[in-house]
Design brief:
Layout (H helix, E strand, L loop, with lengths): L1 H12 L4 E5 L2 E2 L3 E3 L2 E5 L6 H10 L3 E2 L5 H14 L3 E7 L8 E2 L24 E5 L5 E5 L6 E7 L5 E3 L3
Parallel strand pairs: 6-10
Antiparallel strand pairs: 1-2, 1-11, 3-4, 4-10, 5-10, 6-7, 6-8, 8-9
């Protein structure tokens, strides 16, 4: 039933949707710098989270600086979910972490505890509550909340047409 619900939601998003920006971001998104972020209220696998972000004309967040990381950690702490998927993965080459949207090797890192520690079974990157929302490698199949990111300078009104 959950899969049917996802398909219906994604299908509906393919039709014309008018979206209003508030202070540079759509309603429900928060702005930091030149990006807008959506911290999900539901938990999905890393792959499903990525698809949802793409459907929303965004991507899983690529955390590229201490400033951006501290902002997202503070938001995650406020909402208190167990973990939030972000865009990084080492699925291609073990221990070579890349942002999937750009293919760039991750240069800023904020691993928690003894992370990364899951080896070949933990190929997806999450902000993890038990480490104060520092980074952890997790199984991509685990259900986690997620953070979508998009540029803040999108047109004030636009339409998605399927």
């Amino acid at each position: 039933m959950k899969t049917v619900r996802k398909i219906v939601v994604l299908w509906l998003l393919c039709f014309t949707i008018q979206i209003q920006l508030i202070q540079g971001c759509r309603s429900g998104w928060i702005q930091h710098g030149d990006s807008c972020y959506l911290l999900s209220k539901d938990a999905e696998s890393w792959g499903d989270a990525s698809i949802i972000c793409i459907t929303l004309l965004s991507r899983l967040a690529a955390v590229e600086s201490a400033d951006e990381n501290n902002f997202l950690k503070a938001e995650a702490q406020r909402l208190h979910a167990q973990g939030y998927w972000i865009d990084g993965t080492d699925v291609e080459v073990e221990n070579v972490w890349r942002w999937t949207a750009s293919g760039d090797k991750i240069s800023y890192l904020n691993w928690g505890g003894q992370e990364p520690n899951a080896g070949e079974s933990g190929n997806c990157l999450a902000l993890w509550r038990d480490f104060g929302y520092q980074w952890a490698d997790e199984s991509c199949h685990a259900a986690r909340n997620f953070i979508c990111e998009m540029r803040a300078d999108v047109d004030a009104n636009y339409q998605v047409v399927g």
